[in-house]
Design goal:
Elements lengths: L1 H17 L1 H22 L7 H13 L2 H4 L4 H8 L5 H36 L6 H20 L7 H4 L1 H12 L2 H37 L12
Helix pairs in contact: 2-3, 2-6, 5-6, 6-10, 7-10
Amino acid sequence: MKFELIRWTSHILRVLSRNLDWMTWNLFLAFVPLLLSIWLFRSRQKRSPIWWAGFLAFLAFLPNAPYLLTDIIHLIHDIRANYSVWMITLILIPQYLLVILAGFEAYVISLINLGYYLHRHERGKFILWTELALHGLSAVGIYLGRFLRFNSWDFITQPDAVFTSVLDELVGKWPVVVMAVTFVVIAGLYWLMKQVTLGIILRRRLKATQPQSNHTDSPTA
């Protein structure tokens, strides 16, 4: 029994570690725009040249967060790798869901922070249009990353190649369809997770502002 438990534990660890490197790297890239959004939109930074440089970096790295949605293709490959049904159901699928959810939540909170910034500067009416524009930007970025294998830093190191590729791809029917479907998926998931996230935030704030009631025993006569 003990030997069997050790064997199963070792097998589970091997399965989990198989995707650990690229999942960790992709999660790191997904959390870069989140950290930048906190610095840009929550810390009351002045719009200096450094701020604008950070904002451009935010735009360049933002598609990395929803990009994790496309990593589901790796799960398909793993399912075909002759793992048992239990290993796929209890280990692989939860691992992928956790990573994808964490990455997309980073995207949601990043845009919530941007919306907070716009609202604070009396630009609240532009929040929806800004979100839609960033969904579109992310859809293009995901296509460039998944199919053309560009990275976020390529926007800085070789902007001409990125710009030329975007123009070339936009004239084709297939890339436009892929980007349109990606936009719809991102927008739909974002709306759903934004409501959940804001609901959790609101509940926490209400709980924090509620006075703590002191329960004392009444003296008996």
